[in-house]
Amino acid sequence: MNIGILGAGHIAGKMADTIARMDREKYCCYAVASRSLEKARSFARRFGVARACGSYEEMLADPAVDLVYIATPHSHHAAQAEQCIAAGKPVLCEKAFTATAAQAEGVLARARGRGIFITEAIWTRYMPSRRVIREIVDSGVLGRVHSIQADIGYPLGVVRRIREPDLAGGALLDIGIYPINFALMAFGDGIDQVHAHALMSPEGVDLVDSITLVWPDGRLASLHATALTPTGRMGYIYGEDGYLAVTNINNPERIVRYDRDHRPVEEYPLPVQISGYEYEVEACRLALERGDLECPQMTHDQTLSVMRLMDAIRARWGMRYPFE
């Protein structure tokens, strides 16, 4: 499978490095496209990419490209995904899938209409750790599960994509999406209530988020995201007979179960990985081989559910992007 990377920034580099270390009989980082040909050439030299393109259109016109990975700011995702769809190219689009639910609905409708595969690259949805956590919760070893706590934070306050409203900036779409997905993977969709507060920047975007989600049966998730400081990135799932502690919800490093007396009972093994990006690439290859238009790990309905939830959270803050 020849993969073309749209964008030549940090995330694009991480994906290129990952693909280079995957099975070369199955995966090839074939092309990179940037609005700057020199930037594309520099990226290609650094990561051993066969072709450098000075425009997105040039790469999308190449019949050798089997899958396009969109690695640009999420404010650009909708337009770029539509470019890929118009060119007939399957798409792996970095999270957040788009800036708004309306954009996501439009992109997915066009993909379905053209019969083009597309999926959201929210990597935690594809990782083996997701299955491990789900099996622990479903097994009943925690007893009846009532609540979740999850946090994530990085000192990103000076980063342009975070500060700029025109780039759909703020903590929510960039990092708040991780605790949201952590909670949804454990408790499922069908949220009954959404409560949210935010510390806003002078530019009018959220820098610190406090989000509470409530399910109809009374289960509750308390989520925290901040672009101002590092946090422990911990996730806890609490049951009547014990709780689960997940270290680094952004890319789980340890999963430990504790009993009701706070004693560690079991640590669950996790596979050695390249970077964590390989799982979403593999999922795309398998889906394309089956002729599917989406990945079961992150269905179109699940992407829409997350986008609509983030719209609802922003509505609680009265926060709108300039292009809405």
Description:
- The protein is α/β, with parallel strands linked by helices.
- It contains ten helices and 14 strands.
- Strand 13 (about 255-260) and strand 14 form a beta hairpin.
- About 45% of the residues are buried.
List keywords for this structure.
35% helix; single chain; 324 residues; alpha/beta; eight-stranded mixed β-sheet; six-stranded parallel β-sheet; globular
* Strand order across the largest sheet: 8-9-10-7-11-12-13-14
Radius of gyration, rounded? 20 Å
| Succession of helices and strands | EHEHEHEHEHEHEHHEEEEEEEHH
Beta-strand segment tally:
14
| Mean pLDDT, all residues | 97
Low-confidence stretches: none
Shape: globular
Largest sheet: 8 strands, mixed
Number of discrete helical segments: 10
Strand content: 25-35%
Proportion of helical residues: 25-40%
Give the end-to-end Cα distance, rounded to a whole number of Å.
36 Å
Structural class: alpha/beta
